[in-house]
Amino acid sequence: MLPLSALRPTGAEVREMIRLAWPIVLAQVGIMTLGVVDTAMVGRVGPDAVAAVALGHIYWMNLTVPGIGLLFVLDPVVAQAVGAADGEGVARGVQRGIIMALAVSLPTSLLLLPGEWFFGLLRQPAAVTPLAASYSRWIAIGVVPFYVFVALRQSLQAMGHTRGIVAAIVGGNALNVVLNWALIYGHLGAPRMGAVGSGVSTAIGRWAMLAIVLWFDRAHLAHVLRPWRAGALRVQPLVRMLAVGIPVALQQWLEVAAFAGGAVAIGWIGVQALAAHEVAINLASLTFMVPTGTAAAAAVMVARAIGRGDGAAARRDSVAALSVGLLFMVAAAIAFLGAPRHLAGVFLADADTIVMASSLIAIAGVFQVFDGVQAVCAGILRGTGDTRVPMLIHLGGFWGVGAPLGLALAFGAGLGARGIWFGYLGGLFAVAVAQLARVRWRLSRDITRLQIDEAAGFAPAAD
Fold first, then answer.
1. Per-residue b/e over 37-69, b at no fewer than 16 CB within 10 Å?
2. What is the separation of C-alpha 182 from the centre of its chain, rounded to a whole number of angstroms?
3. Dihedral of CA 333/337/339/342: which sign?
4. Any residues with CB less than 8 A from the CB of 406 and at least 6 apart, and which?
């Protein structure tokens, strides 16, 4: 067992973690703010509009999260190349990321189109289904820029350039607010589109975000996007990246699908319960962006340390990331538990829905501590190239523990929406404990760089 002194990060390492993490956190919060703003602005239209945006957002997340997870392979590939001072490896990694982003865009866009059939299959409220389906078709227009933006975001983070990402998020959010105001309520001569208007504005905002990051970071991207490397199209390296990225895609999807499945079950309870769930999950997701951003910083710093052959620094960086993520989530938990009704009232006007949402927000105050731990652990493991076992942990925790527990409490014990949320809590606890154990095991061993372009040297993380 390693002595504690070998795990204690230096002040410089903690400062570097915070320096890298805060713009990523700001970007993550900004991405989440798009959904929160949509919910807040359509909330004044009525519960049906909130529920429609909730269903459309769930549909979007379940279809796009696997692609996002797949592109997270750029964390270890690009950041380890940066740590090893391998400029060609960086360029090939970024270009392969663009190829993967374009490849997943077409099927994702097509799957967003049959909304009525999908929501009908899930027995969602008839008053909400047409609105949710129309919302989904409009946001399909933003799939291509969204995935390309994610690929560039992961690459730029790994390279240590984050200001352009922040600028894109700020610009996209500002545009989204203006377009929401115009299209939801019918201002500036625009038609009054209600919930569907927020889908239109979101799609336009995603194109704007891609344009901003391409312009702002043109100097940083020029040498990795031009000239196009012939090796970027080689099949074997792409397959090796998929071998690392597909488990991340499944891991991300298993988590999101568990939360989305809970939302579907809450939809069976009624529109009011679904509206309350949407508000509570948006708040929890907003605070969750901080450990998510910290996890991204951890993946980059751990991967860079591995790239330069410094296993001791990788261990210290991991402890720094866990400390930062846990500290914030404890503070957020105190806020959620202390003022759940006030937080619900920001988004809702209906008194009964506020009461229901406040009970879910209180549960979120507890589960997000474990959510923060598992997210940061996943980032650490991703930085090492360890993706298969974390995926299996998500499968067991969310679907072996959380989902059956939530259904039993919601419908067997009669707790309704609160039962689903207690299931979330149980699943997150199980995943956090298992991921933390995996981090401890992984960092106790020697870790070598992923070799994507050398078949003989390629080896995904040992199980």
1. bbbbbbbebbbbbbbbbbbbbbbbbbbbbbbbb
2. 28
3. positive
4. 262, 265, 419, 420, 421, 422, 423, 424, 426, 427
Q: Where are the domains of the chain?
A: 4-454
What SS3 class is residue 278?
helix
| CA 5, chain centre distance (Å) | 33
CB atoms within 10 A of CB 346: 12
Cβ contact 247:463 at 8 Å: no
End-to-end CA distance of the chain: 19
Radius of gyration of the chain (CA): 21
Strand residues in 78-200 grouped as ranges (E): none
**Identity at 231, one-letter amino acid code:** G
* Rounded CA separation 20/25 (Å): 9
Pair of tokens at residue 16:
């570097």
- Would you tell me how many other CB atoms lie within 10 Å of the CB of residue 119? 26
Among 362, 315, 313, 356, CA closest to 335: 362
List C-alpha distances in Å: 220 to 91, 126, 351, 377: 11, 49, 51, 29
Residue 441 CA, distance from chain mean position: 25
pLDDT tens track for 275-330: 888 888 888 888 888 888 899 899 999 999 999 888 888 998 999 999 888 888 99
Task: Fill in the DSSP letter of residue 1.
Answer: -
Q: Per residue in 225-281, pLDDT tens?
A: 988 888 888 889 899 999 999 999 999 888 888 988 888 888 888 888 888 888 888
Closest CA to 51 of 257, 198, 256: 198
- Token pair 């115009």 is found at 182
Backbone angles phi, psi at 182, to 5 degrees: -75, -45
Residue burial 414-451, b: 16+ Cβ < 10 Å; e: rest: ebbbbbbbbbbbbbbbbbbbbbbebbeebbeeebebbe
Cα dist from 35 to 161, 239, 315, 399, 457, whole Å: 25, 34, 35, 26, 43
Q: Which two tokens stand for residue 157?
A: 């983070």
Rounded Cα gap, residues 241 and 247, in angstroms: 11
